[in-house]
Amino acid sequence: MGLLYTLAVIVARFTRSQRLALIFILLAAFGLRLHQLGADSLWYDETVSAMLAAKPLAMMWAHTAGDIHPPLYYALLHGWILAAGNTEWALAFLSLWFGMGSVALVAHLGLRTYGAWVGLLAAALAAINPFALWYAQEVRMYTLGGFLLLAALIVTWRILVQPDHANWRSYAVYALLAALSLWTLYFSAFALIALNLFALPWLWLRARRSLWPWLLAQLAAIVLFLPWLPIALRQALDPPVPPWRETIATLDLLVQAGRESTTALAFGQSLNPSAWWPLGFVIVGVALCAFGLRDRLGERVRWGTLLLWLSIAGPLVLILVISQALSPLWHVRYLNLYAGAYPVLLAAGLLFAAGGRALRFDSRWRAALAIVLAIVMVAGTGVSYRNYFQHRFDYESADDLRGAVGIIAANLGPDDAILVNAGYLYPALLYYWPGKIGWLGRLNDWSGDENRASNGPAVVLTGHVNGDPDIGWGDPESDFFAMSEQETAAKLGELFQNFNTIWLLRGYDTVNDPDGFIRNWLDEHGDNYFDQVFPGQSFVRAQAWRTGSAAARASELGTTERIDFDNIRWLGVDISPNSPQSGQPLRLTHYWQATGPIDRGYKVFNQLLDANDTVVAQKDGLPNLGAFPTDRWSPGQIMETTFVLALPPDLPSGEYRLVSGWYDENTGERLPRQDGGDSVSIPIQIP
User: Fold this and answer.
1) Fewer CB atoms inside 10 Å of the end CB: C or N, the chain?
2) C-beta neighbour count of 437 within 10 angstroms
3) Euclidean distance between the first and final Cα of the chain, in Å?
């Protein structure tokens, strides 16, 4: 409700005709941000937001204290979940709402700084900006932080540039906004420092009577943040997790930051900066033309323009300096936090480029320049939209964790475990898992006797292999922990004794397991029968290892019957559990041997038939989910096909038959048996 009131107040500051234009702009921004909201999979950071916000507030506070971000956004999202649910759409809507608020604040800042028409043009630019759209649809705290910092910038502008209109309420509002921004994201501190680097000299030289109220406002902000300050200092000075990024040479960092920043500001993150930065540089350069309006609009505009630019560039400079001097911090996403004033500067720059200092539009070359700039902006924005909504990009794209977890859930058997590497990737599995989790814990806590029979799968979290023992501050509840290679190998061996299949949800293991110890151990001791990479920046993978060789498992079945199809021999089947119940998953692992060359890829069918030969359950698919099609089998090679057959919950007890075989997907023709027929038939008793 407070945000709606803010929107209404801002709209009311414009004339009647301008109000209609602003309302149209806000509605257009709202519709654009609603398009495909929640359609994509959440990526890792977003699943952390969903997990923390779902916890009771006291538990969320405690968990966040062991993480790397403050709790305000998670607390707001917690309340929003209670009202709207926790679907991807509902979770992202909170970010959309604060993104909408930022569009209105941009209009207000443009109105105060350069006039109503700049305010309207700036709002329109903010409404369609792909960079703003990206984070307005992301389940993270960036639009909330950007909204708060933009509001703090507006109040700062009022205090500094219009001191006669500022009163104690202005300083109180600034202190509250500054404190809330710190409670939202620690990187807000860089923006507040940048504002002070401008404000303190300004007040000292021009309005010393306002210096002490300003300093008291800074002190008040710190006091309001004081309950979390000890935790923040510990997280900043002694983080519980190792650095995500590597330090790079100064020149390389400057080039990278320059290209990414100009491209993101102009066209968003769905365009590769290596190709688009020159055009981005041109568009951002237009925003610098806002300084040219000072002769027309007065000295106030010159200093206001400098303040707006400092609010963007100042935090970035601080981040780059710290990245070289102390710890690598740079990522283009943080620019979105500070980019609130950019549409205002771009609108003012376009106004100057089109009309000059006199703001006259009778110059042909200026009109031509305006048209060219408009074409470049529209073209770049259009390509960015296409890439974003149609996923035609690989730069900064979100990982398809929904797909990775979904394929594990669809194929997990009753005797399978899930290994999550790195351990802190588990929020994605918790969010997308369709049922209950039987056991969730660290690999070094696994003892093999955990009760998991009917409660769901065991989810085992790996640690930082040979990592610093102080990771996670030694807290047994932390998501970050270290394990030696010896302990990791011993515990993996125990898992292999307890389960017949180990699934691995793998992502970000260049930090967690830089030498690949875990995946190499699994390759050496198990039989990797499934491996699928899912699209996204980090190439998350779902993999599965059988705990032994297919030939050894086939021989352990003790099956003497052999059935020969055309170049494929059936060696037996392992059915788990032995006495399936209605509503339970039935795991079927058939063992096959190639007896000759196979000229095409066949699909497996598995049908459960009742006494009337009616199909009551069915599961078809490629062997090993398409990882090893039959036309790649070598003569003599023993392979297995594993499927999970979902039994209907109301399946009556009695005698059933499992019918399995092969068919050509293109023609539907079944592969014949050499002795007649086209399938294997196994009796199944449902008690």
Assistant:
1) N
2) 16
3) 58
In the numeric block, the tokens 């104690």 are attached to: 168
- Under DSSP, is residue 327 helix (H, G, I), strand (E, B) or coil? coil
The model's pTM is: 0.86
Whether the upstream peptide bond of residue 126 has omega within 30° of 0, thus cis, is no
Residue 301 contacts residue 308 (beta carbons within 8 Å): no
Which tens digits make up the pLDDT trace of 243-274? Answer: 667 778 889 999 999 999 999 999 999 999 99
Across 62-83, average pLDDT: 94
By C-alpha distance, which of 645, 489, 634, 493 is closest to 573? 645
Point out which residues pair with 609 in neighbouring strands: 615, 657
CA–CA separation, 164 vs 162, rounded Å?
5
**From residue 400, how far is each of 36, 323, 338, 513, 533 by CA, in Å?**
15, 30, 28, 21, 9
DSSP letter assigned to residue 673: B
Domains in the chain with CATH codes: 2-390 (no CATH), 401-548 (3.40.50), 552-686 (2.60.40.2550)
Residues 270 and 390: beta-carbon distance below 8 Å: no
Q: Are 548 and 536 a contacting pair, CB within 8 Å? A: no
Give the pair of three-digit tokens for residue 453: 């029979």
Residue corresponding to tokens 């151990």: 521
Tokens of 224: 């309001």
For 379, list phi and psi in degrees, rounded to 5. -65, -50
